[in-house]
Amino acid sequence: MPAPQDRVIVTAALTGILATREQCPHLPYTPAEIGEEARRAYEAGAACVHIHGREPESGGPTWESRVYAAIRDEVRRRSPILLNFSTGGFNMGVDGEAEKRRRLGYVAETRPEIAALNMGSMNYAKYSAQRKAFVFDMVFPNPFSDILLAISAMREGGVKPELECFDLGHVANAEPLVTMGELRRPLQYSFVLGVLGGAPPSAETLASMARAIQPSDTWEVIGIGRVQWRLVGAALALGGNVRVGLEDNFYLDAAGTQMAKGNGPLVEKAVRMARDVGREPMSPDEARAALSLPQAS
After folding, report:
1. What percent of the chain is helix, strand and coil (3-state, nearest 5)?
2. pLDDT in tens, 5-20
3. Strand, helix or coil at 241?
4. CA nearest to 51, candidates 113, 132, 143, 133
5. What is the tens place of the pLDDT at every residue in 106-151?
6. Which of 154, 201, 247, 252 could anchor a disulfide with 159, C-beta 3.0 to 4.6 Å?
7. Are 285 and 52 in contact (CB under 8 A)?
């Protein structure tokens, strides 16, 4: 069932894949640190956490099952919050289906409730107007063949895909997969706005993406950078769910002057915003029902 208009699922994206402690000293790297951040997010009002595996020492990205299993155990030891593991970047820097399947092994082995599924390829960049130069500039590859590999791993583990869409074309990419029987409704979408190469980060864009899905499906907004709070406000007004967290934005203010000391304060602000417009955050069990997930055993 879609989320009721007076309730909202708040997700916290705890650590990300690109950000470092040099940029934000409060980012968690180790499984225990991630478990603690998940607990703080839960106590602040989040029903779900989105997690990228990080090497405990270097903080670099990892797709190793042992790391994800340790993260799962540390999170579940501390709170009942729902787990959403990323599959982002699993296909970058590797060739051949066998190695891609190996990288995805953690999804079926650790069995989080949800796993993120990127729904299309795109330019992925950040531009500095002050420098008049690109801070980084890359191509984010997600052909349908790789999307199908990730879906297969999720199906093997009984994991619900969260469809991450950076543009309207990515939203439309779900339809042939539904026709093929690879995806089953109700679907869960995340509209990712604020990345150069994706759709413009505006309330108008968000409304267009929300209109493009079926009434039985659910959606949330992921605002990247300082546009996050404006997009959170738009999503709350439109009846969608919201994601905040250090993966997406370090700051509690739109001007970027007040760095959050962890994920908890970002969740607290999102919850305040939700309550200001008459929407109450869901518990993990309520979010399970809204997202058509099996009830906890």
Report:
1. 35, 20, 40
2. 899 999 999 999 989 9
3. strand
4. 113
5. 999 999 999 999 999 999 998 988 999 998 899 999 999 999 999 9
6. 154
7. no
Q: Tell me the C-alpha to C-alpha distance, in Å, between residue 130 and each of 18, 127, 135, 225.
A: 22, 9, 11, 16
Amino acid letter for position 114: I
| Separation of alpha carbons 239 and 111, rounded Å | 29
- Name the residue among 238, 285, 225 with its Cα closest to residue 13: 225
> Which amino acid, residue 104?
L
Please state, in angstroms and rounded to a whole number, the distance separating the CA atoms of residues 252 and 259.
6
Distance from C-alpha of 25 to C-alpha of 52, rounded to nearest angstrom: 17
Q: What are phi and psi of 272, to 5 degrees?
A: -60, -45
At 277, list the tokens. 């417009």
Whole-prediction pTM value?
Answer: 0.96
* Residue whose C-alpha is closest to residue 273's, from 238, 237, 247: 237
Q: How many CA atoms lie within 13 A of 269 on its CB side?
A: 23
The full set of domains in the chain, from first to last, is 7-290 (3.20.20.70)
Other CB atoms within 10 A of residue 124 CB: 17
- Residues paired with residue 201 on neighbouring β-strands, in sequence order: none
CA distances from 216 to 95, 116, 186 (A): 37, 19, 6
